[in-house]
Hints:
It is elongated and about 135 Å long. It has helices at about 1-10, 15-35, 45-65, 85-90, 155-180, 190-215, 220-225, 230-240, 245, 445-455; strands at about 65-70, 80, 95, 100-115, 120-125, 130-135, 140, 145-150, 260-265, 270-275, 280, 290, 295-305, 315-320, 325-340, 345-350, 355-360, 365, 375-390, 395, 400-405, 410-420, 425-430, 435-440. By secondary structure, it is an alpha+beta fold.
Amino acid sequence: xxxxxxxxxxxxxxxxxxxxxxxxxxxxxxxxxxxxxxxxxxxxxxxxxxxxxxxxxxxxxxxxxxxxxxxxxxxxxxxxxxxxxxxxxxxxxxxxxxxxxxxxxxxxxxxxxxxxxxxxxxxxxxxxxxxxxxxxxxxxxxxxxxxxxxxxxxxxxxxxxxxxxxxxxxxxxxxxxxxxxxxxxxxxxxxxxxxxxxxxxxxxxxxxxxxxxxxxxxxxxxxxxxxxxxxxxxxxxxxxxxxxxxxxxxxxxxxxxxxxxxxxxxxxxxxxxxxxxxxxxxxxxxxxxxxxxxxxxxxxxxxxxxxxxxxxxxxxxxxxxxxxxxxxxxxxxxxxxxxxxxxxxxxxxxxxxxxxxxxxxxxxxxxxxxxxxxxxxxxxxxxxxxxxxxxxxxxxxxxxxxxxxxxxxxxxxxxxxxxxxxxxxxxxxxxxxxxxxxxxxxxxxxxxxxxxxxxx
Length: 456
């Protein structure tokens, strides 16, 4: 082991010596800089060295196009850099006036689109039965009242039969009462009272049968039914509620009276379908899901440290991934709890879903699709006439923000108080006046010059 170590020392002898010498020189230089020691230089030599250094600095200052000059600290704590216009242009320095513009203080958040759950319907049949015909597919645009499917349900046929019987019975009892009323002096009072009671009972049964059909979604108007003949009434009740195009294809002699339509409750799009011809269905299972896509929900996630900034009624500007334009909505719901996993606060807004174009078959293409991620901006505040400067013009020295203002002979440093930034501009709350010329490009060149002044 000792021999191996000796061999390594011999092979790296020059490197070790060089390293030791370098560290020694570095230590001496650091010590001399800290103590301002001349290390043996005589008084005349040190003075000559200082003289040469001063002369070199003056020569560099005379050659440099940027000539810094400190203002009197008693009159102004700012710092001015003297610079002719032509030299400033060569250095890439440009100025523009302080402008007034609307600056919004926004909170940037991630979000996702979704259907407006107040306008999403999961549709099922009102009575058990079998799917007789399916009228609509997923993705189709529908109108309120459109038939989505036709169900063959025995209970529907029984309700129709009960109504027809109730109508006939009521008419019979009514006619009997009319005849007895005409000969009221010739019949017993008890007989007349009994006829009146039977007529009232028959009317109540008819109204009950009518209500049963209405509960099934089959609209019945007694006034219209009483104007029809028996054959017309039966034909009408057999196909009531069915679309005209379906009725035209039915054979009135062989078609069952058990058919009932499943209709759309509002305008929208079919986003889900489970119904298949011949399948057994019941009120407890969903056959269609319909959504109104005229408006969508935007749900954004706000970090817990920003949760206190969000309020109901604030505007949200949301841009979905892949969308050609943003949409604007208003915060209408703020969750009362943080998500257990992400530790963020859910905030929701309802936004319009603009139409982009119409397809060749009449389908509508809209801007927003459900379950699309995007970026939202919650507008916390808005200043309509704020003094603003380009954001690249603002510099920071570790303590204060500042900009450079055009002066008569060059550029003047001006400390400023910042507000929110938007669209490449930042609000200036104090330190500048309107129409003052600030450096909009090349301010880093002037900052570097100030740093050189500070180092001298």
